[in-house]
């Protein structure tokens, strides 16, 4: 282990907040959510200070209070012990992300053991699921017609099934507060609370209304093509592109900053079509006032209504009718623009951090 990497991680360790409630969020930070939940708690729950840490590559490219090199996070016993002492001695509350160990291999890479140890020291501990860590493939196949968790498409689906079952059993053994980041995960953790993903709506505001140009721009920017229905999106939208009806832009490998310009310049944003829910990209596109297309099942839309008091402004679309829905929107642009206009307000009500902080407050205000 290069000593300079350990020193880099040590030097980057933030000061412990000087607030009565001190929240530590780690270690995944997928889509920047760990950092955003931490900031939301600070901003909206009185007396809370928070620190986020990321040690997993999937969260490195997003803002975090403490970026720890993966080698250090996984292999440095010295850093792991120091980090455990830092959290144990300095914080009152811990939010474990994605059932991932916060201290590398210190406790056999087991987040549930970490939770028990920290609870034994008097800290309040909760977990928050991001997705595949608790989404049970067999249950998803039963509930969602276009589920991507099928053996014909994914050889490792049975491996994931076993991993998720272990995670669900671990959570059940803890009997601690549990949160989920998307509404569909309540299928797997019915006793959890939905703590929505967070974005900064101001960063995504776009002055240009959608569908004003003759040939609209349609964007699809999947983080994982298998889970988003990208093959079907590509087939339908390439056809419409070649017919001159839309300009289709398939986006991959861009930075979060580049995504703002991409979404802001789009008319239509095609998000995901196989999981039956919606995620961060849809929220960003709604905040920008774009026309968002995706497949969100009725029972998940009802969960959104229950939380927001409003319908989800995502145009219902499946992998089987992408082409037809886009053509209908092009024929009735006024209707599409009305749906798009609802997006910014919806995001401010449910995804700007205030609602998520209110969900977390029940955990944070318990000592």
Automatic annotation (TrEMBL):
It comes from the Bacteria. Residues 82-145 form the Cyclic nucleotide-binding domain. Keywords: Transferase. GO terms for molecular function: transferase activity. InterPro entries: cNMP-bd_dom (IPR000595). This is Glycosyltransferase family 1 protein.
């Amino acid at each position: 282990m290069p000593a300079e990497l350990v020193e880099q991680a040590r030097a980057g360790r933030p000061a412990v907040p000087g607030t009565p409630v001190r929240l530590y969020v780690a270690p995944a930070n997928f889509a920047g959510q760990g950092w955003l939940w931490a900031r939301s708690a600070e901003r909206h729950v009185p007396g809370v200070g928070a620190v986020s840490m990321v040690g997993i590559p999937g969260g490195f490219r997003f803002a975090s209070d403490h970026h720890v090199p993966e080698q250090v996070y996984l292999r440095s016993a010295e850093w792991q012990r120091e980090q455990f002492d830092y959290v144990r001695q300095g914080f009152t509350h811990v939010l474990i992300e994605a059932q991932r160990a916060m201290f590398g291999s210190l406790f056999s890479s087991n987040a549930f053991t970490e939770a028990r140890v920290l609870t034994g020291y008097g800290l309040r501990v909760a977990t928050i699921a991001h997705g595949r860590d608790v989404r049970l493939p067999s249950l998803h196949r039963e509930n969602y017609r276009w589920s991507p968790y099928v053996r014909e498409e994914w050889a490792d689906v049975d491996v994931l099934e076993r991993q998720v079952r272990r995670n669900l059993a671990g959570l059940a053994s803890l009997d601690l507060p549990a949160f989920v980041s998307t509404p569909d995960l309540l299928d797997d953790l019915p006793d959890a609370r939905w703590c929505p993903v967070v974005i900064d709506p101001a960063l995504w505001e776009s002055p240009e209304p959608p569908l004003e140009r003759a040939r609209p721009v349609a964007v699809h920017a999947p983080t994982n093509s298998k889970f988003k229905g990208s093959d079907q999106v590509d087939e339908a939208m390439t056809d419409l592109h070649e017919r001159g009806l839309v300009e289709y832009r398939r986006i991959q490998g861009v930075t979060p900053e580049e995504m703002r310009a991409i979404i802001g310049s789009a008319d239509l944003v095609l998000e995901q079509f196989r999981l039956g829910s919606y995620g961060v990209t849809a929220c960003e596109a709604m905040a920008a006032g774009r026309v968002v297309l995706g497949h969100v099942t009725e029972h998940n839309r009802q969960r959104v209504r229950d939380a927001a008091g409003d319908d989800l402004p995502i145009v219902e679309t499946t992998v089987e009718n992408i082409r037809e829905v886009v053509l209908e929107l092009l024929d009735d642009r006024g209707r599409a623009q009305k749906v798009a206009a609802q997006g910014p307000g919806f995001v401010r009500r449910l995804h700007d951090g205030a609602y998520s902080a209110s969900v977390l407050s029940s955990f944070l205000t318990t000592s």
